[in-house]
Amino acid sequence: MNFNVIDLATWNRREHFEHYLNNVRCSYSVVVNIDITEFRNRLKLLGLKNYVAQIYILACAVNNFPEFRMSLDNEGRLGYWDMVNPLYTVLNRENEFFSSIWTCYDRSFAPFYDRCTADITQFCTGALFPKPDCPTNIFTISSVPWIDFSAFNINVFSDTPYLLPILTIGKYIEERGRTMMPLAIQVHHAVCDGLHVGKFIENVKSLINDCKQWLPQ
After folding, report:
1. Which residues does 134 contact at the CB level (< 8 Å), separation at least 6?
2. Which of 33, 83, 129, 182 lies deepest, with the highest CB count within 10 Å?
3. What's the CATH fold of domain 29-213?
4. Where are the domains of the chain?
5. How far apart are alpha carbons 187 and 190 in whole angstroms?
6. What's the whole-number mean pLDDT along residues 171-191?
7. Quick check: 179 pLDDT over 90?
8. Which residues pair with 86 in a beta bridge?
9. What is the mean pLDDT of residues 88-101?
10. Which SMART domains does the protein's record reference (predicted)?
């Protein structure tokens, strides 16, 4: 997959990037509760798995914004991938260990759903990275369905700044007849501002609300 190197000399966001990469090194997290009532009901009606559909939605939204596909290459150059694949956690209920499994992204729901479901069936062993040949162009999704959190933060310790987003789904909240899904969004401030996170959240909501347009009829 193509990695597009950004020319910092001409990039209009260079000042902000270098400030938050070198001077005030920080990532930040935002938690939002998203109404999934009709979406969840639709999935139940169709007999589809919630988590796989959620992975698809988040992968679509991430791939809609270059700020969510930015990374550093092996030479330390900033750039963005043409496309990124989801790497997501799945719990093996027998041994109570989770596996991180990657699935090739597809903009079309049906092939992605089939591919993701097959990967989970085959590789949910409890080994940390059971599926071989994990690509470099990935972003991370995890699920903690035991906790209906209102705040969530992951501390990444690395010599190289981790710029790609980390997304975490929490336990559903039943509130006044509606089903709310907590979603934690962690990004690096060097590449992603509040404006970008806001656009991302609105896109996730739009994909959920318009699910009849892309789910099977």
Report:
1. 87, 102
2. 182
3. Chloramphenicol Acetyltransferase (3.30.559)
4. 29-213
5. 9
6. 97
7. yes
8. 139
9. 97
10. CAT
